[in-house]
Write a structure and sequence with these properties.
The protein is mainly α and 68 residues long. The chain has one domain (2-61). It has helices at 2-19, 29-36, 38-60. The two termini are 25 Å apart.
Length: 68
C-alpha cells in the first residue's frame, strides 16, 4: 500500500510539473490550467492519506491479533 501511494505521489509531482511549465506554452493553456489545476493537490492529499494509513497498518497491523 505504501509503495503504491509513493508511486501516486510521483505521478502527482509529474502532473504538477506539467501545470507549471518553465518555458513558453500554447494559447489554450490558461483555460486548461484553470479547468484541471485541482488535480495535483487532490492526488497529493490522497497519496499522503494512503501513505499514512499504509504505515499505520504496516507498523501496528499485528496488534489486534496478539491474543487471537
Amino acid at each position: 500500500m505504501v509503495v503504491l501511494a509513493l508511486l501516486a505521489e510521483a505521478n502527482a509531482i509529474k502532473i504538477f510539473n506539467i501545470f507549471n511549465p518553465s518555458g513558453f506554452v500554447e494559447v489554450g493553456f490558461n483555460e486548461f490550467k484553470a479547468k484541471n489545476n485541482h488535480w495535483p493537490g487532490l492526488l497529493n492529499k490522497i497519496a499522503f492519506t494512503l501513505i499514512a494509513i499504509g504505515t499505520l497498518i504496516w507498523g501496528y497491523g499485528d496488534i489486534p491479533f496478539i491474543n487471537a
